[in-house]
């Protein structure tokens, strides 16, 4: 268990980009959304005079994961889900497993909750025994941002206890072919799953995500949520991306992504860098001496990567690199080679 130390929990990859830099800092798939999805979103503008109706999208998400409609709450991205949970829950002992996406902890602190951190060791594999037995709220990512580690579903489920809420951030689960470690379809008692459409479908600007939880908690979260929080275009996107055809399309891309990710990881490892093993998401986490200095030199050469020192449990020798297409990745490798890496 680690006491909280000061890092910028609100620093995210979007702060790294701009000014014409090649983007290896944001974990959103480039070249998206696809034409068929963009057209559906554009067509939804014709319905903007009416208030948003979430029912078709809720039904689509429920079918996608084999849940009941009452177990689904649509949100303006995963970030809103974390805020709603922080407003509704009243934990006596809240624990966030780090390194991971910092927004859950930031939301809890903003709502006035004290937060303890469990810091995982170098390979960042989850050990449920590290979590205090009396913790009544535990937050964990799977696969985890920024480490790209995919925890076994049974290991995550083992965190569940009577009287404890386990929040699992599965924002990157759809980049794992087959989603074998997802708890979305199992949803053990006390487990809350948060999903996002931002990453695979390139919809960061639309804000589209959802919560899967027991109907009682979904009802409490809905009461805390502003009316019509999810816009009509976002609802159209949620419904479309939950269809069997869209899921199959995402699966095909996830397979291709995995091949390129593994190639990039092997290239970096072959240069003597430590890359967190068994990466399964759309990014790599690596340890580089003087990572902040390397990041600055890359920016001078037109490349943005994500600093690691704003993630609790990492430090100034860590970077996160998004996996792009092979030509883009090769250009980054060439620049790193020019820097002696």
TrEMBL record:
Gene3D superfamilies: Aspartate Aminotransferase, domain 1, Type I PLP-dependent aspartate aminotransferase-like (Major domain). Its cofactor is pyridoxal 5'-phosphate. SUPFAM superfamilies: PLP-dependent transferases. Residues 27-335 form the Aminotransferase class I/classII large domain. Its EC number is 2.6.1.-. InterPro entries: Aminotransferase_I/II_large, NHTrfase_class1_PyrdxlP-BS, PyrdxlP-dep_Trfase, PyrdxlP-dep_Trfase_major, PyrdxlP-dep_Trfase_small. It is an enzyme of class 2 (transferase). One of its GO terms (molecular function) is lyase activity. Belongs to the class-I pyridoxal-phosphate-dependent aminotransferase family. This is Aminotransferase. The lineage of its organism: Bacteria, Bacillati, Actinomycetota, Actinomycetes, Streptosporangiales.
